[in-house]
């Protein structure tokens, strides 16, 4: 048996799927395309992902998880909650801008995929809001923030900063003045949290 | 000469254009279509709008101006700035939701038109931000709000509430809990302004 099929993990399949998406766009990335790229039978891929939809959902989730993974350390750090909040929002904006700016074609492809995979997107938003809740909770405990309901407040902060992380605004992220706009929104929110 | 052509104002042409858009969608609404709907020669329409692009831009501007027109009275009223700000944001959200919900097909048509007419949209945002600046300026003068730069603060408030007026979020406006989300964002921003 060839070593390729022995070492065929879900992660390797997802890496190959992303590579197929990068080369061929969202219309491709079927199980057959991915199996071909890996030089394995499509049966081997099906053992990990039973349908094309499952494969596409998993690769979308992996793409979104990369961002939440990057941010989780900031949310969990044992530091001043206000600094943590500012750093977290800055890192979220930076991560989304990087994804949109560094590889616009792959970003466009994932925009199609996120449109198809509402559950993966909702889970991603829930992950990020949970991280934000943790920071706001910490601020409420130390008395830096006033937040009777940290979860609702986290949701409000997330929604109020949508312009700086919702991929629908990716075009605006290249415009002059966007950093100043971001700072002004974050300052206003932090003042609201402190009050 | 028929009275129709004697009384052919730009406003009447734009009304007819909106009616053509309502019936036939964004692909239609050429000068010829509109002239036919009015029972006049296309030359008469061209005297008011020299190109199809000018006609489509004007009808888009008229649609957007209806919202800013509704809101200008709230911004200009001689009342407590905080109440004015809350009412203004509530009225903006209500106006956008009404447009999206009452006539979804016309809304979709105008979404195509606003995509084509970036200048009309920028002017609309500038109009609304100027109204908001006026309210925040009033709050800064009475001491209810802290805002060193009322224009920058107005821009931040407008951007932070995008979820509740940007047509890109129209799908979310029908979801349960959207009013509570709106209140949470507005409360946080008002707290920030007061601080």
Describe the structure.
Chains A, B: Residues 30-49 bind DNA. Chains A, B: Residues 7-67 form the HTH tetR-type domain. 2 copies of one chain form a homodimer. Chain A has 195 residues and is mainly alpha-helical. Chain A folds into 2 domains: 3-50, Homeodomain-like (Arc Repressor Mutant, subunit A, Orthogonal Bundle), CATH 1.10.10.60; 61-194, Orthogonal Bundle (Tetracycline Repressor, domain 2), CATH 1.10.357.10. The first copy, chain A, has helices at residues 3-6, 10-24, 31-38, 42-48, 52-76, 81-102, 104-116, 118-142, 150-160, 178-194. The radius of gyration of chain A is 20 Å and the shape is elongated. The termini of chain A are far apart. The A-B interface holds A 146, 152-153, 155-157, 159-163, 168, 180-181, 184-185, 187-195 and B 146, 152-153, 155-157, 159-163, 168, 180-181, 184-185, 187-195.
**What's the β-strand tally of chain A?**
0
Q: Characterize the main sheet of chain A.
A: none
**Which CATH architecture of the largest domain in chain A would you pick?**
Orthogonal Bundle
Q: How much of the polypeptide of chain A forms β-strand, as a percent range?
A: under 5%
Helix and strand pattern of chain A: HHHHHHHHHH
Q: Evaluate the radius of gyration of chain A.
A: 20 Å
């Amino acid at each position: 048996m060839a070593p390729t099929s022995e070492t065929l993990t879900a992660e390797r399949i997802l890496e190959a799927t992303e590579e197929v998406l990068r080369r061929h766009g969202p219309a491709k990335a079927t199980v057959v395309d991915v199996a071909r790229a890996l030089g394995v039978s499509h049966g081997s891929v099906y053992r990990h992902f039973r349908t094309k939809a499952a494969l596409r959902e998993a690769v979308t989730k992996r793409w979104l998880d990369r961002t939440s993974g990057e941010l989780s350390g900031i949310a969990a750090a044992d530091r001043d909650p206000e600094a943590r909040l500012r750093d977290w929002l800055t890192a979220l904006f930076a991560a989304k801008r990087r994804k949109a700016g560094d590889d616009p074609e792959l970003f466009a492809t994932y925009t199609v995929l996120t449109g198809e995979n509402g559950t993966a997107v909702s889970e991603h938003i829930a992950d990020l809001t949970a991280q934000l809740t943790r920071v706001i909770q910490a601020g409420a405990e130390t008395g830096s923030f006033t937040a009777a309901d940290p979860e609702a407040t986290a949701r409000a902060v997330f929604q109020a900063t949508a312009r700086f992380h919702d991929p629908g605004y990716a075009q605006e992220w290249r415009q002059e003045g966007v950093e100043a706009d971001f700072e002004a929104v974050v300052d206003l929110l932090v003042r609201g949290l402190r009050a």
